[in-house]
Design goal:
Order of helices and strands: EHEHEHHEHEEHEEEHEEHEH
Strand order of the largest sheet: 2-1-3-4-5-10
C-alpha cells in the first residue's frame, strides 16, 4: 500500500474525511466539493483494496471522523460474469469499511444504487420500498446496505442512479458515438433517473452537516428512458445529423438482467430541504463543460 498523504492543518469546524474510490467520477466530485472546507484523505484502489480484511486497519489508521464510501465494482455485466467478485468487493468490502467506522466511532456514507430494486414498480421507488435485486450487482450492493445497517448506528445510505460527470459514462458514450455514426440504436424500455455526480456531491455535503441518519435517494429530479436520455444528449449537443432508433431490452443482449423501471423518489432528503435540479438541466451543464 502506498503511503497516505499527510493531512494538512484542519480548518476550524472542518472534519477529517476519508473517501474510498477517490479516482471514480463520484469520488472526484466529492473531493472537488468537500475539499474547500474539510481535510480529505483520498483513497484510490492503490491505497485501499476492498474485499480484503486488511482494509479495516488501513482505514482505522487514517483517523477519519467521517468515511465516504463510493468505491465499488460497478461493471454490472462483469458482476454477472463473476458474482463472487462482486460480493467480495461490494458486499464484504462494505462490511470491512463499516467495521472500520465502528472502530473509529465515525459515521459512514455508503453509496448504493437503484439496482437494489427489481424494476417491477409503476411509480418511482421511495427510500423504504422493499429491495428485491434481480442481478449480481444489485445483490452485492444490497449486501453492503445490510452490513451497514447491521454494524452501525450512524450512517447515511445514499442511493444514486445513472451517474454521469466524469470521463466514462452514458453521456460521454452517446456524444462519442453520435459524432461517429448516422444512426444509434438505444433501449427505450429501461427507465431511470439520470444523475450528475456533482449534484450528488453537493447534496452529500448538505446531508453530512445534519444528524439525520438513514436511507436517502439523491438523484436529479425526473425520469426518462435510455432512449429519451440519449435524445436529450444529442439535442443539447446540437447534433441534427444522427438519428436515434428505439430498441427493447430484449434486443440489447448483455450478461446482466436489467431492472426495467427504477426511477428513485427523493422524499427523505427533500424533507430536509435537500433537492436536486431536473436531470435535463444537469445534462446541459455537463455537456457545456465537455464540449
Amino acid at each position: 500500500m502506498r503511503a497516505l498523504r499527510q493531512p494538512s492543518k484542519p480548518k476550524a469546524g472542518s472534519m477529517r474525511i476519508a473517501i474510498t474510490g477517490a479516482n471514480g467520477q463520484l469520488g472526484r466530485a466529492l473531493q472537488a466539493r468537500l475539499g474547500r472546507e474539510h481535510e480529505l484523505i483520498a483513497l484510490g484502489h492503490g491505497e485501499l483494496e476492498l474485499g480484503r480484511p486488511e482494509c479495516v486497519a488501513q482505514l482505522v489508521a487514517t483517523g477519519a471522523e467521517l468515511v465516504l464510501h463510493p468505491a465499488a465494482y460497478t461493471n454490472v455485466d462483469g458482476c454477472a460474469r463473476d458474482p463472487e467478485l462482486a460480493h467480495r468487493v461490494n458486499g464484504l468490502g462494505t462490511r470491512y469499511v463499516a467495521l472500520a467506522c465502528r472502530q473509529l466511532g465515525a459515521p459512514l456514507v455508503y453509496v448504493s444504487t437503484n439496482e437494489v430494486f427489481d424494476g417491477a414498480a409503476s411509480a418511482p421507488y421511495f427510500e423504504y420500498d422493499q429491495a428485491r435485486p434481480i442481478n449480481a450487482y444489485g445483490r452485492s450492493k444490497w449486501a453492503g446496505e445490510q452490513a451497514v445497517r447491521e454494524l452501525l448506528d450512524r450512517f447515511y445510505i445514499v442511493r444514486v442512479a445513472w451517474l454521469f460527470g466524469g470521463e466514462r459514462n452514458f453521456v460521454r458514450t452517446i456524444l462519442r458515438l453520435a459524432a461517429e455514426r448516422d444512426e444509434l440504436a438505444v433501449v427505450a424500455d429501461e427507465i431511470g433517473s439520470p444523475t450528475h455526480a456533482g449534484d450528488v456531491a453537493a447534496a452529500v455535503e448538505q446531508l453530512i452537516a445534519t444528524p439525520y441518519y438513514g436511507t436517502y435517494h439523491l438523484v436529479n429530479a425526473g425520469a426518462c428512458s435510455r432512449y429519451e436520455f440519449a435524445a436529450e444528449i444529442v439535442r443539447q449537443a446540437g447534433n441534427t445529423r444522427t438519428a436515434l432508433r428505439p430498441i427493447t431490452l430484449a434486443e440489447y443482449k448483455r450478461d446482466s438482467t436489467v431492472p426495467p423501471y427504477t426511477p428513485l423518489r427523493n422524499l427523505a432528503a427533500a424533507a430536509l430541504g435537500i433537492e436536486l435540479r431536473p436531470w435535463q438541466a444537469a445534462v446541459a451543464e455537463y455537456i457545456g463543460s465537455v464540449q
